[in-house]
Structure formats: structure tokens, C-alpha cells
Amino acid sequence: MATMFELDTLHNRPATYDDESSHTSSDSSNDLDGEAVEERAIYLLGQKHDETSLREFQKKLYWMTYRKELQVGLRPYGGGGKFIGVTADSNTSNGGVSDFGIEGANLETLEELASCGLRTDAGWGCMLRSAQMMLAQTVRLHFNASTSNAGRFCKRDASEEMRIAAWFADFPNPDLTDSSDDHISESNPQLDSNTSAKEDDDRIDYHYWYSLHQMVAAGLGLGMLPGEWYGPTTVTHVLRELNEMHCDYLEKRVRQNNHNTGKAMFRIHVATEGCIYLDAISNLMTKNQVSEQSADKALPLDDPLQITNSTNSKKQEWDTSLLLLLPLRLGIQSIPTETYGAPLAKLIQFTQSVGMLGGTPRHALWFYGAEDVALTAAKDAVRVGGWYGLDPHTTQPAPRGVLEEIGTNSNTKKYRWKVNMNESYLRSLHIGAVSHSNHEKSIPLSNIDPTLALGFYFKDYQDFNSFKRSLHSLNAECKRNNLPSILTILDNAPNYEVDVGEVMKNMALNKKNALEDDVDGFSLKSEDGVLEDDEDNDDDYVLV
User: Fold this and answer.
1) Mean pLDDT of 342-359
2) Is residue 206 within 8 Å of residue 166, measured between CB atoms?
């Protein structure tokens, strides 16, 4: 759940990130207080670069920005009085957001309802857009067949472009609980120049899993209304909720229709307080295997000979890939750069890094790189390195779409929004010739708000093991230099659901037993089995 300091309100928000008036960050050139700073290597998503290649690298990334004139407005309530959002009793297979809570509504009604609500996220949605950029990069890595670092940023292909353009388009997801449009491949649409326009259209996934509308709907379940500011912790839980619905939907279609959806979607895990619990990750990433084993054979309960799934097993295999999100708070008003600057810069150099969510006060960005800083030099630096991020504070027109009827197994008509994949919309997903000036400037870590979230993508269990080894080496080096470890790994999560009453009862029984035995284990009872009476009760027993 979101922490209290992130649930900002319009009148009292201690750490807000979004304000369209604050487009210009503090001067973050490589001159600090008039003194030239030596040129450092730059690491961008785990790859070493220099400033000359920074611009070309940025063009390969996906850029999510504010949108205006949304075709479907953002609002918490539907025309039928139903609350739009993710609730505890909702069926997550429908993708979260229904067609405004109205069954069998006609096209005219839906189009009229679409015009209601907020028509832009300018001024409050930059943390959501920053999260979209991190997630789009993860989607790109996940479906890229290349296993090399260089291949992570190869030339974009048509299927990648269409997948991201659809999944992040500003429309609500259709209600497809009983849909029969099985011709759409949710995970791996393939487009090529030899197919017709109709065939291409059929292969595009018109599910808007991670759109602004979906994120706002998931935020409602966390107490956030449209138009309110999001913090890094809140948005990580929003991504996890949407990803869970996405994965559940695909897995359900496989079970019910034997429908091959291509490569399985990655899962998202949120590890709070900088601590990664291996048992929690193992349970998430092997749950399909556990379900299959349970279906094949019912194992006896409390069997001491049964080999359990160990988180330390060298042969453990995951069902799919993992995006690990770690919301952190490194300080109160600002990040102590002499303490956290160098370790934080080292973490973003990991090859599994997909960047960091954060920003300056009232101004969120997705940080994809930072200048390298030696751990031994951290305490000598007034400002430890600069950080590079994509800025969502540019307002662009929202994509257009049309309502179309979808086939269902019921007599009730249902519709979905079909986004127009025109050249203008596809071009808006990337930095053009004219873009925000903040893209080419680094931001000193001392100017970044202490509330942030790190992201790491693991292709498989072996990749996760490599990350663990890198983190162990980094923490050991930090210890040698008297620096804190930002992230830690433990085998098991603490059990916060222990019955406190039972624990107190056991403590009382243990105390009573301790009074009957001395420290050497000999009974203080007489041979007749009765405690020797002593008028001086003050000195009867001495507990050590």
C-alpha cells in the first residue's frame, strides 16, 4: 500500500512531483559553483556511454508524455452510478475497467459518457507517465529475442512498436470476460510487409493494459482519485495490480481455450523497504509449476520426507521473467549524497537495471542513467554525479479511436475502443527534433527528492542469480568504505500474522517453568514434591 507521505492532496502535499509550471530543473551542468568537474563515464541502463552518444541513445527509448483532449474522460464514477476501479470482489480477468458500468449501452450513450471527466493529465500525471516509460522499456527487453547487451537497443521493429502503442494508448480496457475475439495475440503480435492492412489490424492487440485510464482505475483501489498526485510507492503498486490482471487474463485464456498467446508476459513484484525476500519471489515465479504439481498429485500434509521448493535451489526454473520494483526513501528532505550517491549510481549500472522513478520536488521523471562515481570518492563529493532522465512534461494530443462492437458469447452488445495507429501517434512516442531541454541535462543527485523507486528486469532465474552476486559484491565494497547497503536480500519474509495472544501465553508458561527450576537444572522442590516455604518472599528467587 502507499505510504502516508505519498498520498498527497491538493492543499497539503509534502512531496509532490507534478507541476507543469516547473518544467525547468535546477541548473545541472557539469560546473558546480563555478568549478569544473572532471568528465565521468555515463552508464545508461547498464551500458557505458559518453555524452556524444547520449542523444542517439535517447531516440531509441519510448517517451510517454502528458496528453490533452483525451477522447475518453477520466472520472471515478460511471453513468450507472458504479465506481470504476479495481475492487476486492471484482473479476480481474476483465482488465479492470468496464465500459463505464453500463450493460448493453448503445454507441450514442458511450460516446456521450466518454466526453465527461478530466480530459488531460497535464499538471498531475507525470509520475504515471514516468512509470509508463519504465514499463515500456521492460516490455521491449522482454520481447526482444536478443540475449546480448547490445541487442537490448537494436532497431525497433513493427511488432514492438504496435504492441507498446496499443498497450499504453489512452483508452479504457474493454470488458472481455466472455469475448470470443480469440484471433488477437495479446503478447506477441507479428507484423510484416507481406500482410494486408486487414491482417495487420487483426494482429494488433487492442487491449490497453497499461494506459492512463487503467492506471487511474487501479489507483482508485489505493485511495487515489483522478487529478491527484502519485508518488513512486503508489505507482509501483499500480503497475503490479495491472500486471497481475494482464497475466491472469492470458493464463485464463490458455486454460479455457487452449489459446497460444506466444511468449508469456513477465510478472511484477514490489519489494518494499529495500529488502528482497527470496521466498516471496520464488512463490510468485513458480506458482504455475506448483499448480500443475498439485493437479497431478495430491501430496500428504506435513510429510517430513517431502522435498519442498527451496529458494536456494540451483536448479530452480521460473515460469516467466520478472520486473522487480523497489520503492525507497533515502532521506527526509533530500538524499544525503555523501552516503547514498555512489551506491545508488552503482545500482543503475547493473545490466538488469531499467532505471529509476523519481525527480525533483513537483517534477517526476524516469531516470535511465547516471554518471559513474567511485565508492571511495563518495564522501569527498559535494554533489555525487549527475542523473539523466526523460521528462514527460510536454503536452501532446491524445490518440484518436473509434468504438466498435466486439463478438461475445452473450446476447448483450459490447464495444471496445479501437485506437488509430496513425503515423502522428506513433511518432509522438519518441523524442523528435524539438524536445524538452531537460533531456540533455543531468540533474545533480542532491536536487532529487528522496522518495524514489528502482526497477530491475530479470530474463530468467539465472539472470536473477547474476544480480544477487553483483549486489553481494556491491554491498561488500560499501561495507569496506563505510557506506550503507541500499538493497539487501533475505531468504524468508517475516511473519507479521503471528498470534500475539498465543505468544504471550507461551511466554507466561515459560516463565512459570523457569521459576520451578534453578539455573543448573535442579528442582527447587523438596523431596515430598512441595516447595519449601520461606517467610522472606523477597529473596525466594533470583532470576538471571
Assistant:
1) 95
2) yes
For 236, counting Cβ atoms within 10 Å of its Cβ (0-12 exposed, 13-18 middle, 19+ buried), the class is buried
In tens, the pLDDT along 14-37 reads 344 444 444 444 444 444 344 444
Band (pLDDT 50/70/90 cuts) for residue 441 is: confident
* Long-range contacts (CB closer than 8 Å, 24 or more residues apart) made by 466-472: 466/351, 466/352, 467/350, 467/352, 470/350, 471/350
Which grid coordinates are listed for 12? 497539503
Given a cut of 90, is residue 276 above it in pLDDT?
A: yes
Q: What is the pLDDT of residue 134?
A: 97
Distance CA 68, CA 129 (A): 13
Nearest to 25 by CA among 430, 358, 433: 358
Closest residue by Cα to residue 311 from 491, 493, 494, 495:
491
Pairing of strands 363-371, 353-360: antiparallel
Each residue's pLDDT tens digit, 165-177: 999 999 988 765 5
Q: Three-state secondary structure along 414-482?
A: EEEEEECCCHHHHHCCCCCCCCCHHHHCCEEHHHCCCEEEEEEEECCHHHHHHHHHHHHHHHHHHHHCC
Distance, C-alpha 331 to centroid of its chain:
21
Count each helix (H run) and each strand (E run) in the chain, helices first: 13, 17
Is 323 in contact with 247 (CB distance < 8 Å)? no
pLDDT at position 239 over 60 = yes
Q: Write out pLDDT tens, residues 36-70.
A: 445 678 999 988 887 778 878 888 899 999 999 99
- Strands 395-397 and 66-68 come out as parallel
Secondary structure, 3-state, 39-58: CCCEEECCEEECHHHHHHHH
Is 401 strand, coil or helix?
A: strand
- Cell numbers found for residue 350: 547493473
Whether 356 and 454 have beta carbons less than 8 Å apart is answered as yes
Stretch 101-107: mean pLDDT:
46
Give percent above pLDDT 70 in the chain: 60
* 438 Cβ contact partners less than 8 Å away, ≥ 6 residues apart: 23, 24, 25, 365, 389, 391, 393
Q: How far apart are CA 72 and CA 170, in angstroms?
A: 8
Cα–Cα nearest to 455, from 278, 284, 273, 327: 327
The whole model's pTM is what? Answer: 0.77
Task: Measure the CA–CA gap between 319 and 381, rounded to whole angstroms.
Answer: 44
Contact 168, 65 (CB under 8 A): no
Task: Please state, in angstroms and as integers, the Cα–Cα distance from residue 149 to each residue in 350, 355, 466, following that order.
Answer: 11, 15, 14
Mean pLDDT of 76-98: 41
- Which residues face 277 on adjacent strands? 490
Contact by Cβ (8 Å): 450, 333: yes
